[in-house]
């Protein structure tokens, strides 16, 4: 049963495989870069207990739609969305660093814009714990990107 006005989006096989491949555990803090309408973020919250996902996207429209589709998860404190370009992202004040970050189909990390990619990786690195990991698409289905 879902609230009126809250649409549930079916997760694609590809996104489901990506969520399956992430080394997630209950209690983790997860940063999703380029969340779109929040399908993967909601799936993670649904599958794990006591997990927190901050999902960001550069599109204000996508973030508004994601928030609209995720009212219960936001209200429960498991999920939040933020409109931000990854190359400008800063860990929100009083926010603890993340255990893991992942990005699927994110232009800033696809190698076409090296100067943006360098800054994006720097921002992700600052948002993660010292042993935090970053995963992007392009592996089978994911690959880990080593951070400095």
Architecture blueprint of SSEs:
Layout lengths: L12 H9 L7 E5 L5 H9 L4 E6 L2 H10 L1 H5 L3 E5 L14 E6 L10 H14 E10 L4 E4 L3
Parallel strand pairs: 1-2, 1-4, 2-3, 4-5
Antiparallel strand pairs: 5-6
Notes on the structure:
- The chain is of the alpha/beta class and 148 residues long.
- The chain has 5 helices and 6 strands.
- Strands 3-2-1-4-5-6 form a 6-stranded mixed β-sheet.
- Strand 1 (29-33), helix 2 (39-47) and strand 2 form a beta-alpha-beta unit.
- Mean pLDDT is 93; it is low at 1-5.
- Backbone shape: globular
Strand order of the largest sheet: 3-2-1-4-5-6
Fraction of helical residues: 25-40%
Number of strands: 6
Strand content: 15-25%
Number of helices: 5
Indicate the structural class: alpha/beta
Low-confidence stretches: 1-5
Distance between the termini: 45 Å
Mean pLDDT: 93
Q: How many whole angstroms does the radius of gyration measure? A: 14 Å
- Biggest pleated-sheet summary: 6 strands, mixed
Order of helices and strands: HEHEHHEEHEE
What are the key terms here?
disordered N terminus, 6-stranded mixed β-sheet, 5 helices, 148 residues
């Amino acid at each position: 049963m879902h609230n009126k006005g809250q649409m549930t989006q079916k997760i694609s096989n590809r996104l489901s495989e990506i969520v399956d491949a992430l080394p997630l555990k209950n209690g983790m803090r997860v940063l999703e870069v380029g969340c779109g309408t929040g399908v993967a973020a909601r799936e993670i919250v649904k599958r794990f207990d006591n997990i927190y996902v901050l999902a960001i996207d550069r599109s204000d429209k996508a973030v508004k739609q994601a928030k609209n589709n995720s009212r219960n998860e936001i209200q429960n404190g498991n999920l939040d969305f933020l409109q931000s370009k990854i190359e400008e992202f800063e860990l929100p004040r009083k926010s603890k660093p993340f255990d893991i970050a992942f990005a699927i189909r994110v232009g800033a990390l696809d190698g076409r814009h090296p100067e943006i990619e360098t800054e994006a990786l720097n921002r992700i690195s600052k948002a993660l714990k010292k042993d935090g990991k970053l995963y992007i698409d392009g592996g089978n289905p994911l690959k880990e990107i080593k951070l400095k």
